Amino acid sequence: MAEEINKLLKEEGVPLPEDTPEKPYIEIKNIPEGAKLNDEEIANLMSFNLLLGINYASRSLTEAIRPDVGYIFFKVIMKKVLLCVPLKDLMQKRNWLRMPPPYRA
Predict the structure, then answer these.
(1) Distance (Å, whole) CA 105 – CA 78
(2) Contacts of 35 (CB under 8 A, 6+ apart)
(3) Would the pTM count as exceeding 0.85?
(4) What is the 8-class DSSP label of residue 3?
(5) Under DSSP, is residue 2 helix (H, G, I), strand (E, B) or coil?
(6) CA spacing 20 to 30 A to 20: which of 71, 90, 98, 104?
(7) What H or E segment, with its residue span, contains residue 103?
């Protein structure tokens, strides 16, 4: 997907920033307990990230004038939705989905 977007931007003459250098791998054996994220927190962060990505791509899709650009955003939405389905199943299976408290006016 990223290669397709980069190709489109290069064809349209949009200057791209330089890539950041890769970060070195450091093996940390003793991570303090408060600094670790548990599996539930990681799953919730992933689902929130996917939700924001779908929202931003949907908005961009509705505002796209060119059909080829809209198609790219459509493909981004579909890839993110396909990632959401197994994540939601996993979160339901592990009882990580929580109902928000009821709203009372």
Answers:
(1) 37
(2) none
(3) no
(4) H
(5) helix
(6) 71
(7) none
